[in-house]
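Below is how a single chain appears once it has passed through the pipeline. First comes the sequence as given, then the structure the pipeline wrote out for it. We keep one example in the README because the format questions we get most often are answered faster by looking than by reading.
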Amino acid sequence: MELSQLLEQLLIQLPNMGIAIWMLWTQDKKIDGLLTNQQQLIDKLLAYVDKDKQAAQKVLSDANQKVQN
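Resulting structure:
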């Protein structure tokens, strides 16, 4: 393949490559946003779990004190 044919093919495919790069970039940004949102949800869930554990521990502690008295 000659250099002129190679350049011609490159110029013909340039819009397709541009669209492909743009699509990859937007998908990367979308995935980053989804991962950030997922991390926030996981953090909230873990906070709820910790709060429930503390509440359960308090209930058990209160029950043990009532049994001892």
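The mean pLDDT is 94.

See the next section for the split statistics.
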